[in-house]
Amino acid sequence: MLRLTSPTMVLVLAALTALGPLATDMYLPAMPAMAESLGTGPDQVQLTLSLYMAGFALAQLICGPVSDRYGRKPVWIAGFSLFLFASLLCAMAPSIEVLLVGRFLQAFGGATGPVLGRAAVRDIHGPLEAGRILSYMASTMALAPALAPLVGASLLLFFGWQSVFVLLALYSGVMLLVMVLAMPEPLALEQRQSTHPSVILANFRMLLTQRSFLGYTLVNATGFSGLFAYLSGSSFVLIEFMGLLPLQYGIGFSLIVGGFFTGSLASGRYSHRLGRDRLILIASLMCALAGSVMAVLALAAVYAPWAVIGPQVLFLFGFGILMPQSMAGALAPNPQCAGSASSLFGFLQMTTAALVGAVVGQLHDGTSRTMAIAISLAGILALISYWWVVRPVSVPVRGEEGVLSPYK
């Protein structure tokens, strides 16, 4: 049985959390081929991504509070079992309608990975150390989205798009075995919460009136929307419009994830030295700058892969810093309902991203303009969310290990 505070446990939590990006990124190079195979258009295939995010958001409102009552481990096991079944359904889908159902069920199961992963870090490591651990988890699990498009492109080349979902089923099966055989329960009995609707609603109401929670959540949700706008539109922009091969697209995606990986490492390294809020300010400025550069290039009709991939590398570097720090900021004041806080955080994040992805898909004009403008707006809104919502209530207090932190 693993020790909760061991480095191996951090790796396992990262692997569980990585199910989310794997389920979105691995099939990106196959989206044009899926549209052709299933006899549908890009908007319907893009809907599989937005519907996944919508289901992911809805599931988080359920799995977090349930895990606050029954523990993280049993909810993880149920979720990954559902994900395994749904992945096989996607692999055998004869039509876009069945694929949409499979993706929605995938989302319901897959939501348990990141939601309970965040909550478990808060359970184990406390409010201040959680930011550093989440940063290192993010850098570790960045390997998944870095490799996922390359793996997806290779599977598409040799075995067809269905093999992507078979591999996702195998991954969830392996993680199920690890959970059943080696994982301890991270949530202590004395921290268990009731699942009575009135208790859950009271927790959600408390969180929605907590300005720091809302501020950090908005910063994360708007930044994540920029990433999701890229996920939703990039394969059609870079493969169909700009003529990249699926494998070339995967290589470009790996460069972008490299930006996220580097940013998350920087976030962990400078978490104590610079503090949470200063890091978020720097990161949101990077996201706003990168998105604006991409939008200007697109509006100037500079239609080249470097004009998309280059700015997105900088955007993901900023988001790699921003994501773990904003997560830790939202969860820090709420140890008594970490699962519910993680659920609501993820729900607002994914709902915002799903709406942005749907808009990008519906307004896609065959060029990079719609996607670039969406990414630009996401970066600017992340900066505005920090400056107008988080910053005015940021009060430094002395926390663990003598570190000053904005703990509200």
Automatic annotation (TrEMBL):
PANTHER family: MAJOR FACILITATOR SUPERFAMILY, POLYAMINE TRANSPORTER 2-RELATED. SUPFAM superfamilies: MFS general substrate transporter. InterPro entries: Efflux_drug-R_Bcr/CmlA, MFS, MFS_dom, MFS_trans_sf. It comes from the Bacteria. Belongs to the major facilitator superfamily. Bcr/CmlA family. NCBIfam families: efflux_Bcr_CflA. Its main location: membrane. The keyword Phosphoprotein does not apply. PROSITE patterns: MFS (PS50850). It is a multi-pass membrane protein. It is found in: Cell inner membrane; Cell membrane. This is Bcr/CflA family efflux transporter. The chain crosses the membrane at residues 45-63, 75-94, 164-183, 213-239, 245-267, 279-306, 312-332, 344-364, 370-389. Pfam families: MFS_1. Keywords: Cell inner membrane, Cell membrane, Membrane, Transmembrane, Transmembrane helix, Transport. It comes from Litchfieldella qijiaojingensis. Residues 9-394 form the Major facilitator superfamily (MFS) profile domain.
